[in-house]
Amino acid sequence: MQKKKKRIKSTNKIYLNGILLAHRFLIADNYYFLFAYCSVQDLSKIKIYIIILFMKKACIFDFDGVIIDSEKYHYSGWLRVAEEIGTTLTYEEYAPFKSAGRTVVIPYLFKKAGKTMSDEDMNKYVKIREEKIAVEIKKLNKNDIMDGIVDFLKLLKRNNIPCAVASASASSTGVAKRFGLYDYFSAFVDGNDKLPRKPNPEIYLETAKRMGVAPCDCIVFEDSILGVTGAKNAQMYCIGLQTYFTDKADKIIDSFVGQDLTLLNV
Predict the structure, then answer these.
(1) What pLDDT does residue 1 have?
(2) Which of the four pLDDT bands, split at 50, 70 and 90, describes residue 266?
(3) Rg (Cα) of the chain, in Å, rounded?
(4) How far apart are CA 116 and CA 142, in angstroms?
(5) What domains are defined for the chain?
(6) How do beta strands 187-189 and 163-166 pair?
(7) Angle at which helices 225-233 and 202-211 pack, to 10 degrees?
């Protein structure tokens, strides 16, 4: 009985000092010491601490195209607006405008149609755009949740890693609540906060502030060129999802399927 009790104390000691042990002996390349001194169980705990030691402290996610595959619905809404103005809009044209907002897209559509845009036109098509997008967003269903994202969010929550959303879309909060995703995030910043649009870094900086985390300790997940640029402008590490224009990201992934905490070890 005494022997068992001593073993528990030994394990707890390694558990509590895992970071210091890993840092001291792995940095010195003294792998022999670790394998000689620690059990397989202890080594497993030290491996976890090594990951935690070097990984970012918080995660910030864009919403559309990262948490949920809603971009096709946003595009469809903008296509209807383009047709109302008297022109067309391909998805390839739309892609660079992700997160840009109506004050950028509507003038582009007028210019493409060869028409002069007045303030009245802007107000008119802002309302039309809101109506069209609202109709399209209602078509979202659970199958549109990005592959692997729920498991990844659960993993982060289990390991007490704060997560937040920084989205330009005013519909993000409603959609997140609708599909039971909202509670995974300690902060949720979206278009209703009326912050400057991406690539302005303000939305990321405000999100980090609400989480109580320094910008340099955040890792951002984005799928658009404006989002990636905004994250870099905020001095944050950025991972791009393999969609459009993410080559400026620090790292690119195809999806969240099978991702673990090593993704945050940058």
Answers:
(1) 47
(2) confident
(3) 23
(4) 41
(5) 2-51 (no CATH), 56-68+146-264 (3.40.50.1000), 71-137 (1.10.150)
(6) parallel
(7) 60
User: 3-class DSSP state for residue 208?
Assistant: helix
> Do residues 206 and 189 lie in contact, with contact meaning Cβ atoms separated by under 8 Å?
yes
Look up residue 222 and give its amino acid: E
The CA distance from 173 to 166, in Å, is 10
- Residue 184, SS3? helix
* pTM attached to this predicted model: 0.75
pLDDT band at 29 (very low <50, low <70, confident <90, very high): very low
d(CA 60, CA 66): 11
Backbone angles phi, psi at 169, to 5 degrees: -80, 135
**Which amino acid would we find at residue 216?**
C
- Dihedral class, residue 242 (left if φ above 0, else alpha if ψ from -120 to 50, else beta): beta
**In the predicted model, what is the mean pLDDT of the chain?**
83
Q: What is the C-alpha separation between 256 and 148, in angstroms, rounded?
A: 5
Instruction: Please list the alpha-helical segments (H only) found in the chain.
Output: 2-16, 18-27, 31-37, 40-54, 71-85, 91-94, 102-113, 119-137, 149-158, 172-178, 202-211, 225-233
Cβ neighbors of 88 (< 8 A, separation 6 or more) are 79, 82
Measured distance between the N- and C-terminal CA atoms of the chain, rounded to whole angstroms: 44
